[in-house]
Amino acid sequence: MNFSPANITALVIAASFAAGLNIYATVLTLGVLARTQWVALPPGLDSLGHTWVLVVCGIMFAMEFVADKIPAFDMVWNALHTFIRVPIAALVAYHASSQLTPQMQLLATAIGAAIALAAHSSKTAVRAAVTPSPEPVSNIALSTTEDAVAIGLTWFATHHPVIAASIALICLSAAILAARALLRAIQRPLRRLFGTEQEAGTHHLNL
C-alpha cells in the first residue's frame, strides 16, 4: 500500500465506517494483517498486531457476534457501544495518519470519529426500526451482513483504499437515507395512535 496522504485518508474513511458497524471485527482484521504482514499498513497501526490486542478483539468479536443478533438486547448493546466504537475509531484514525502533518492527523482523527458516529447512529436507527419485528431472522440477517461488511471492507481498504472509501461513503449515504425512511415509517402510526388517544381524552373531558 502506498502511504500517500490520499491513500491514508481513504483508509481512514473506509476503516472508520467499518468500525461504526463492528469495531472489534475492524480492529481484529487490521491486527491480523499487521501481525502476518500480509499487506503493508501505515506504521502507526503496527501495535494492532500485538497478541493481547488480537486476543481481546477476538473475544469481544465473539461476544458481539452473539449479542448483536438478539432482538431488544442488541439495542442495549449498540447504545453502550456508542462510547466504544467512536473513540476507538478516532484512535485508529489517529495512529493510521501518524505519517501526516499534525494538522492533517487531527483532521483525519476528526473525520474518522465523525464517520464512525454516522455509521453507528445509522446502524442503531435501522435496528430500532427492525427490532419490533416478531421474528428474529431480520436481526440476524442484518447483524451478519454488518459483520461481513466490516471485515470485507477493512481488508479491501488495505489493498484498494480509494475504491473502499468510495464504497464506504455510498453505503453510509444509503444507510442514513434508509434509517430516516424507517424512522419516519415508525413515527406515522405512533402519531396516529397518540393523536387518536388525545382526541378520545379530549372528547371524554368534554362529556
Description:
The structure is a single chain. The chain has 207 residues and is an all-alpha fold. The protein has one domain. Helices cover 81% and strands 0% of the residues. The chain is built from eight helices and no strands. It has helices at 5-21, 23-36, 51-67, 73-80, 82-96, 102-130, 137-157, 161-206. The radius of gyration is 20 Å and the shape is globular. The N and C termini lie far apart (76 Å).
Short description:
This protein is mainly α and 207 residues long. Helix content is 81%, strand content 0%.
SSE arrangement:
Elements: H1 5-21, H2 23-36, H3 51-67, H4 73-80, H5 82-96, H6 102-130, H7 137-157, H8 161-206
Question: What keyword list fits this structure?
Answer:
207 residues; 0% strand; mainly alpha; globular
Bin the strand percentage: under 5%
Mean pLDDT: 88
Helix content: over 70%
* N- to C-terminal distance: 76 Å
The outline comes out as globular
The structural class is mainly alpha
**Topology as a string of helices (H) and strands (E):** HHHHHHHH
Low-pLDDT sequence parts: none
* Rg result: 20 Å
The major sheet is characterized as: none
Number of strands: 0
Number of helices: 8
Give the count of structural domains. Answer: 1
